[in-house]
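Replying to the earlier thread about multi-chain prediction with a worked example.

Input:
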Amino acid sequence: MRRNYILLLALLICLPWFSGEYYVNLASQILIAAIFAASLNLLVGYAGLTSLGHASYLGLSAYISAWLSLRMGLGHAVTAPAALLLTTLIGCGFGWIALRASGLGFLMLTLALSQIVWGLCYRWVGVTNGDNGLSGLTRPSPFGIDLGNSSAFYWFVLIITVAALYSIARFVNSPFGATLRGTRDQWRRMSSLGYNVWGIRWVTFVFSSFLGALAGLLYVYFNKYIHPSVMSVTVSAEALLAVIAGGSGTLAGPVVGAALVMLLKNYASAYVERWNMLMGIVFVFIVIVMPAGIVPGTLALLRRLRGGPR
Amino acid sequence: MQFWQIQALNSFALGGLLFLLSSGFALIFGLMRIANLTHGALFMLGAYVAVTAMRFEAGLAVAALCAALVVGVVGGLIERLILRRISGNAQGQVLATLGISFITADFCLIVWGGDTIPIQTPAMFQAPLHFMGLTFPTYRLVVIGIAVVVAIILYLLMERTRLGAMIRAGVDDMQMARAVGIRASALFTTVFCLGAFLAGLGGAVGGPIFSAYPGLDSDMLSLALIVVILGGIGSLIGTFVASFIIGFIYTFGTALLPDLAYVILFLPMVIVIAFRPTGLFGTIRT
Amino acid sequence: MTAAMTPALEVRGLCKSYGGIAVTQNVSLTVAPGERRLIIGPNGAGKTTLFGLIQGEIKPDAGTIRVLGHDVTRQPVPERARVGMARTYQIINLFTRDTLAHNVVLSLMGLMPLKRNAFTALAARTDLYDKAAALLASVGLSHRAQHRISEISYGEQRRVEIALALAQEPKLLLLDEPFAGLSQDERLIIKELIASIPSETAIVMIEHDMDIALDFAEQITVLHYGQLIVEGDRNKVVNDPMTREIYLGH
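Result:
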């Protein structure tokens, strides 16, 4: 298994040498979407808390970094940590509110909170430039390396993706990760065993919003432009679709799911302009036909077709 | 003086429309434990159906009735064809309603295009009403009247009719309701139709105020969510009170601090959730 | 009062009502360290509510609860585990997707600072899994340690319930109908298992079936409609006319 991962990583590192710029950029977008989906999966898959407001963290971090650099004239060395920190702090507050409930209440609260942030970005023209978005942004140059080049940027994203996924893997396999899954499966029991269920969920929420903010930073670096639509429920739903399609509560699932969603979005929008409708149909289809996710669902289907044991 | 009075009236009118929207959401949630995220899209669909009906020379009243009926039927189909297949899977149902809301919104974009379509205020309500030296926009008063009438009808329906008794029994304890012979299947479809009907009615009646535009669904869904969270998920009285609270906060927020209207919406919700996680009148803690 | 004399559980004037119906009415009881206490009563007597109150899942309207000398009346559930209380559930409440060993490890970690560690691999902590294996052996399930909960029988799950509680070496153990739904053979296994619990651990057991539970108890409390009716040793309670009327004679 480990050898396969190393092989895959080597392949990914080599990608810019054998593919065109278009695909390198697409790969960068997929990796960013993968970090974002994997961060959401901490909540959806490991904590059992379905959030429909994850786009808030992506968008807030992107906006904060953009605003600090455009309006305050600050360099990336300041804007990046500030965006991560402030967004994570907002995540602390939003987590505190949303975790007053669980189940559908949690879902509705996260959605309501993210809709408020989204509405704020549209309306607060003085800060966000409203529907025009913020443009004229730059990519950072860590250690003097220019990330304006698409290959360099891709490698930069790849390094951060590997680091993010590795930290998620460490997190879920740690004792804390085991207790998190415990609260998902039997929260009453966990409470009576001496665990602070609320605290476990909240820490996870905060970690998840931090990683969402990281994805937001990469997102704004990639696009060099930010628009309020990045906060919309559509973006939260895309990430949720990636998690559920790939298989929630697994490490690789959301990454595969994010790749599927991004490829589908990319190819579909080349032929039809109906991405929202397509995504809606995919949602309904998955929920009805493959509630366990496309990847596990397809594997199960194949196994059944081969006639092997389940 | 005129500013406050007009804004107050606008607040009541928005509150009334929010009630039309949120009461259906609350009914569906209370009975079926489905957070129907299609509700904003159904509201928008109602506005667009009214647009089309009025192109065929229908008056707003007829158009609103058409919109409510069409949207009600759409709601029934959603329940019968999709949600029913995944009953018991609460998360799946939410995701399905989310998917359907995307489909509906995109459908509206295809059929009615991306531009804002204004809906004419009926001629008879265009002239403002003068009363005790004050001027009132008449149509706002009509909207408030419709919302109050709907609230009374809903109240009577819930308290005085057989259907209402069945719904109340189902909200309290669905298993018990089934045990005493209530057909949950028919009841669910009825309530879903009713909820969608009210959303469609709201979209059409709100047309002269909001117009019909892409994104109306998202705007309304946010407000409806805040209303039901504030009022208590599943409580009709809570929904009624919260609709007007949010109507006031949003209207005055937009008028006084247009940039930050959304932040002001956020505050009452946070305060209520902090002290009463079930909402103002709610009993369900999800 | 010396530490040894501090009661394992001391409940004073506990009240709880739902919508005007009093399910616990002014209940007071004291359980000495290492005592075996049986709480019986017909359905609806308020036994499970009393457990919920002691454990903290239900908030009382009035009264105080002290566990091993600590006033836990206003303390949240996990805090009560930290002072030395553990419980089992009448309706089995285990991590069904995980192995028996992992279930026990989760219980062991509940009182360890390790549970906050989000960086190192849990699987590397073989010492914990060894300890879990030893605990499973003590309930006769070492051969099942690597099975998932969903793969073992109901009777075995009942034993895991007890193993999870014992893993925390509680000073006060609440057993909520540990014999519920078991066959005669399985009951004997559980009965032996309970008898083998160290004598320092005070045990409070709710049981519906008096035949199996009477042997266990030194002290018996009879609840009826939320009220404490009779309390005392086995002979006193069994021979009390009130017990016969409300419980044995029905």
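The CA atoms of residues 15 and 101 of chain C lie 39 Å apart.

Feel free to reuse this layout for your own posts.
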